[in-house]
Design goal:
- With 167 residues, the chain is an alpha+beta fold.
- It has two domains: 98 residues, no CATH class; 52 residues, no CATH class.
- The protein is built from five helices and nine strands; from the N terminus they run βββββββββααααα.
- The strands form three sheets. A five-stranded antiparallel beta sheet has the order 8-7-6-3-9, with no helix packed on it. A two-stranded antiparallel ribbon has the order 1-2.
- Helix 3 runs antiparallel to helix 4.
- The protein is elongated.
- The model has no long low-confidence stretch (mean pLDDT 83).
Length: 167
């Protein structure tokens, strides 16, 4: 998930989004940098992770493929860096879920399934009661977790927050 700071948008650049390179900006064709002599529009084909915080954004224009790096899309006074723009509308969280099948939080980060369902909370509570020999409470938590799972509800047991709240 490439999180990028553009001229008019900060967030993920996903497949199908349209971005534009400014005049005198750079993008790459293979290993060679190409300078744009006018504002150039691209469609994002996806992205590849190159390392921690480094992504290669694959782009397409007129049937040819190019790429640019997330750190080269914001201006920080280095060679080959320039401020790009998002030309299409940013995708809402609901639209991202429809297109790609995962949920995103309010700040655009990808939510993992256990953060949505509370599965890890339930497992941690059951283990706590099992280790302390309280099998009735463990069974109650298991039943409540199964109920939440069947009804698409988030597992939020107040005992969890009392036992494991941050100090």
């Amino acid at each position: 998930m490439a999180r990028i700071k553009l001229d008019n948008y900060t967030g993920q650049i996903l497949k199908g989004m349209r971005v534009s390179c400014p005049e005198n900006g750079y993008f790459w064709k293979g290993e060679d940098p190409v300078m744009a002599h006018e504002r150039t529009h691209f469609i994002c084909l996806g992205n590849n992770r190159m390392g921690i915080g480094r992504y290669r954004i694959n782009l397409e224009k007129d049937g040819e493929t190019y790429h640019c790096y997330n750190y080269a899309m914001d201006d920080n006074d280095k060679p080959y860096h320039s401020i790009w723009r998002l030309e299409s509308e940013p995708l809402s969280a609901e639209r991202v879920f429809e297109l790609y099948g995962y949920k995103v939080g309010p700040s655009g980060e990808r939510l993992k399934p256990y953060k949505i369902t509370g599965r890890k909370r339930a497992i941690r509570l059951m283990k706590y009661f099992r280790d302390n020999g309280d099998f009735e409470k463990e069974n109650e938590i298991k039943i409540e977790w199964e109920y939440c799972k069947l009804n698409d509800k988030i597992f939020k047991n107040p005992l969890y927050f009392e036992l494991f709240k941050a100090k």
